[in-house]
Design goal:
The chain has ten helices and seven strands. It is mainly alpha-helical and 284 residues long. It folds into two domains: 3-25 and 215-270, no CATH class; 34-211, no CATH class. Helix 4 (78-92) packs antiparallel against helix 5 (101-123) and helix 5 (101-123) packs antiparallel against helix 6.
Length: 284
């Protein structure tokens, strides 16, 4: 990054981030649950994600005209709902602490995403996952804080998987492109299950898809508009304007990368919480 450019960008960008720091402060921090650090590098066993892979290939609509992978919740057959529930139960019975790190990462991502889809199906039709308000606590909302799973005798919430296991153990900001919150503003739910063999490729794919889609990063009317993910979780992207810029530039296509290099305005952000459902008449 050229020094002159960096100075110009950081001046406006840092100010913009300071203006939204209270929003970022509301996001969960990465808080390691030491219980889940245990792993066995020598274990070559694989967790079977075939049922989840088959479900995704059958019900994910991709490509979609909106550029956002959609889930055809309305079309899910009763037998496939049952198969999904059984898959989640099978993951809960896995003694995951005895597996390799690579298997564990795929396991936790798939468990998070499969449980989220299963949860939506139990309440469908619903306009937004935030309407499933089952988290404990007076000021809590949505389903993320509810203890919905039990693994190795430990009750787990979706928040536990994302913020107490995946983020602090792997320290990889691409995790945000993998776990899916069933919303249009979220990075794509990939039409394939994560495995120890394909996780790296899927993380890279998810990052490129999101950064180069308008809901991720876009410059409109001389204003940089980004997903609120980058504000809520600044700490995972270097905790600074420079860190964010370096991340976006790494995955941006040439058009976006060139636009970012010459940009010198302010920053805006938002997030679309509408359900990522497939529809007969696609939204723009």
């Amino acid at each position: 990054m050229k020094p002159v450019y960096r100075w110009r960008f950081l001046t406006v960008m840092t100010l913009a981030l300071l203006l939204v720091v209270q929003t970022a402060g509301a996001a969960p921090k990465a808080d390691l649950w030491p219980r889940w650090e245990k792993h066995d590098p020598a274990n070559k066993q694989k967790v079977d994600h075939g049922a989840w892979d088959a479900f995704l290939k059958k019900y994910i609509v991709a490509p979609h005209p909106s550029g956002i992978n959609r889930v055809n919740y309305a079309a899910v057959a009763p037998e496939d709902r049952a198969a999904l529930a059984n898959y989640v139960k099978s993951l809960e019975s896995v003694a995951v602490s005895g597996y390799s790190r690579a298997e564990q990462r795929a396991y936790w991502i798939n468990l998070y995403n499969a449980k989220t889809v299963e949860l939506i199906l139990t309440r469908f039709p619903v306009k937004s996952i935030r309407d499933i308000n089952i988290s404990p606590g007076l000021f809590s909302s949505g389903p993320w804080g509810a203890k919905l799973m039990t693994v190795e005798g430990e009750k787990l919430a979706l928040d536990d998987i994302e913020h107490r296991i995946l983020r602090p153990i792997w320290k990889d900001n691409r995790i945000h492109y993998a776990v899916n919150c069933a919303s249009l503003g979220c990075p794509n739910l990939q039409p394939a299950a994560y495995t120890s063999e394909n996780t790296e490729a899927l993380l890279e794919k998810g990052a490129r898809e999101y950064v180069n889609h308008p809901r991720g990063v876009v410059i409109n009317n001389n204003k940089l508009h980004v997903s609120s993910i980058y504000v809520w979780f600044q700490e995972d992207f270097g905790g600074s304007a420079e860190g964010l810029m370096e991340h976006w530039s790494k995955y941006a296509n040439k058009v976006l990368a060139d636009a970012l290099k010459s940009y010198s305005g302010g920053l805006d952000h938002d997030y679309d919480w509408r359900l990522n459902a497939a529809e007969s008449k696609p939204q723009p």
